[in-house]
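Hi support team,

I submitted a single chain yesterday and got back a structure, but I'm not sure I'm reading the token output correctly. Could someone confirm the output below corresponds to the sequence I sent? I've pasted both exactly as they appear in my results page.

Thanks,
R.
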Amino acid sequence: MCKDFILSICIIVCSQSLVYCQSSAGWKEEVNVYNKIYDAPITMVSGKKTSINTLAETKPLIIALVFTRCYGICTPLLLQLKESLPYKHDERKYEVLVVSFDSRDKLKDMQRLRNQLQLNANSNWKFAITDSISRLVASVGFNPVWHEKIKQFEHDALLVGVNSQGYISKKLIGLRSENDLSMMISSINNIFTPTYRLPGKSAMLSCFNYNPVTGKNTPGIGLLLIALPAILSMLVLIVINKLVHRKEEI
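Hi R., thanks for writing in. Yes, this is the structure output for that exact sequence:
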């Protein structure tokens, strides 16, 4: 009975350690990944009405959420995206959909943005507005905060990858490298690519540490935390077992 009790304690402790290790990996880029994006109705700058899923069924999407009055990250995000996307000699299908999350933006504003980026002749880029902003941003875990004093949104530079089935396959936050964008294109085309945690304070307790240079995983401190209670419990059981046998021999 004593052994059963200790074994139960071991299982509980291991389970709690596993939950802790998993919860520490709650990165912003993983919020709502593998969920379906809200099929928001959108209006293109051409005036054509469609929806996100309808576009994705034709070609997977890289969605950039911006607003045209942005004084911060929006324009640098789109410029880098324009320069970094590997259009030439890339057989993987995708389109870029730039959607405003600001209800003040009209079609003429998105058209002006497209002109500024010199993308009028690029059929791979679509610009649109939607009247379902709140449901769209909620479905991708995007939370812009409005500051009335400066009339600006505080928000992440976010790219959302959506495959042809309407599922969010990958998210990227911040200005990212060509390699990151290539991985996103592969993911929306349902091509497996390895992913790894970005460096940060919470990475200390990860179960595995991925080295992007070698392409290999090495055990992390989190894995040790999971295994340690089980190892200690096994040692306790061995000691108790020996003590019981010694007592019986006496």
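A quick pointer for reading it: The mean pLDDT is 82. Let us know if anything else looks off.

Best,
Support desk
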